[in-house]
Design brief:
The chain is α/β, with parallel strands linked by helices and 296 residues long. It contains eleven helices and eight strands. The protein has an eight-stranded mixed β-sheet, sandwiched between helices. Helix 2 (87-105) crosses helix 3. It is globular, with a radius of gyration of 18 Å. The mean pLDDT is 96.
């Protein structure tokens, strides 16, 4: 499956019923970093969450296209540097996929489903979308500026204490639109704030999800899990406050890779990131399918 953009093509996978019918269509945008169309990453994520979600939606009559981001995996294309990208680029790509999805599914419009950072991409795309976009599904998406979320993530882990001062310095600089010299930082921080990605981080930190969702006039569903270690319920609540008319689905026990894990069990939560045999959290696919089928 391909979408044509300058520097492309972009590539993805179509999932729908074997008879080729669909009552709605979604484009699934993955999260941050080198995350592929299945929701997996060479950084240790092998949960297959977006692949499983696509299959579950197809069973419910919702076609989907899950995509590889520009410059990565099968969407390497002729992009010289996958890090030389902005949210506007990703948003334009998402809208190109919307056109493909509605054509393949035979629907008048298609939804964008953004997971994690992909939710921010969806919100940016909605600012300039035309009638081909039905609405948005924001799954484990940030509701506060990324710098705020990243500070919270870093502070939540006591093991980060020796790194915290440098990390906070870097975040503050990037929020101000300034690059930072990380050559003296711990190797983990050198990777997180590598010079090659600082331009993208400056763009990311400048985006306010709450302000963006407030300007969206289309139907929106906000989905969160109460076992998410990366994007907490505070983010879903921030999005809901900014757009009170949006639908809301809280999935009990769901972690960031969309699997149900035992309450308070950090080991099981982290192990789920590498276990594609674990099913999706119960209720997730039903909530999304119910929303997109009801919103058309």
């Amino acid at each position: 499956m391909e979408a044509q953009v300058e520097g492309g093509p972009l590539r993805g996978s179509l999932a729908m019923l074997a008879d080729g019918t669909a009552r709605a269509a979604v484009v699934i945008i993955p999260g941050s970093g080198p995350t592929n169309r299945d929701g997996d990453s060479p950084l240790g994520v092998e949960a297959g969450s977006l692949r499983l979600l696509a299959g579950a939606l197809a069973e419910r009559g919702v076609a989907s296209i899950r995509v590889d981001k520009r410059g990565m995996f099968a969407s390497a294309g002729t992009f010289a540097d996958p890090n030389a990208v902005t949210f506007d680029d990703y948003a334009g790509d998402a809208l190109a996929w919307v056109e493909v999805a509605r054509e393949k599914a035979g629907t008048e419009c298609a939804f964008i489903l953004g997971h994690s950072e992909g939710g921010l991409v969806a919100l940016v795309a909605a600012q300039t979308a035309g009638p081909s976009l039905c609405g948005l599904v924001l799954v484990a998406a940030p509701g506060r500026p990324m710098g705020v979320v990243l500070r919270e993530q870093l502070r939540a882990n006591p093991a980060n204490a020796p790194l915290l001062a440098d990390a906070l310095t870097a975040i503050e600089a990037l929020e101000g639109g300034e690059r930072v010299d990380v050559s003296s930082f711990h190797p983990a921080l050198q990777a997180m704030f590598a010079p090659a990605v600082q331009g993208f981080l400056i763009d990311a930190f400048a985006r306010d999800p709450a302000a963006l969702i407030a300007g969206v006039k289309l139907p929106v569903l906000i989905v969160g899990g109460d076992a998410d270690l990366q994007v907490g319920l505070a983010d879903a609540e921030a999005l809901s406050r900014a757009r009170p008319a949006a639908g809301r689905a809280l999935i009990p026990g769901m972690n960031h890779v969309l699997k149900k894990v035992p309450s308070g069990d950090m080991g099981a939560n982290l192990a789920a990131y590498g276990d594609p045999s674990l099913p999706l959290a119960p209720g997730l696919a039903e909530a999304i399918a119910g929303f997109v089928l009801g919103a058309r």
